[in-house]
Amino acid sequence: MNDNSFHGRTAVMSGGSRGIGLAIARALASRGGNVVLLAKTDTPDPRLPGTIHTAVSELNELGGHALPVVGDVRNDSDIARAVDTARDNFGGVDIVVNNASVLDISKTEDLTLERFDLMQQVNVRGTFALTRACLPYLQKSASPHVLTLSPPLNMSPQWLGAHPGYMLAKYGMTLAALGIAAEYAQVPLSSNCLWPQTTIATAAVGNLLGGDASLQHARSPEIMADAAIELLSRPAGTDNGRTLLDVEVLAEAGVIDFTSYGGTPPLAIDIFVDAVVSG
């Protein structure tokens, strides 16, 4: 698998205090990358582990150079502070990771419009706004990448109808990423989407998708981190406008055995994915 050094490359990530985002940030930092985290988690939450400060401390201990920006991806001035932090401390932005996302799989009549608006603001607007703010620096980078954690556009009635509010928010992230890929293809800039084939063992999954029992049948966040590193290591423009599952990226890199990522069979298929491939 591609394991290029990230020395001298700077990533700006929304969220990242825990879960998949933190796993990706760890992978970047352990390879010498600079990471600016934009997250709200200034103080501990009794339901969820970690804050932006514990995450940054861990990233620096791994050998990276990480900085916290306490803020909300819904707030344009907070996004500007994150981008300015990357510019002032590291000289620019090479990588954007659109990780922040709100999960609410309520049925349409059970989903309040307040929650609908929150998902649209964080997932769709946040992805668009953070990417937009970084574009002036991405266009100057030798290897500009945008990685958005959102699913392939699965138009089967099953997934269109399972939870339309959440579907609109996650597919909106994907469409934003594909739009940037097409608009900036000549830079060249790589804008791709990455999504897990199975559920991932995170606090969010445990709290919202079935408790401790669901975590037993989920893979570790490191599978998404390894797939992200593989994509971000590729020359900009060689892969662009793709919506990929973690296992697809790793298979392209020659990985065929995914048992090291854990999960007790049967593995739980993730939302918007039709089938689980053995391995």
TrEMBL record:
It comes from the Bacteria. GO terms for molecular function: oxidoreductase activity. Keywords: NADP, Oxidoreductase, Peroxisome. It is found in: Peroxisome. It holds the Pfam family adh_short. The keyword NADP applies. Gene3D superfamilies: NAD(P)-binding Rossmann-like Domain. Its main location: other. Belongs to the short-chain dehydrogenases/reductases (SDR) family. This is NAD(P)-dependent dehydrogenase, short-chain alcohol dehydrogenase family.
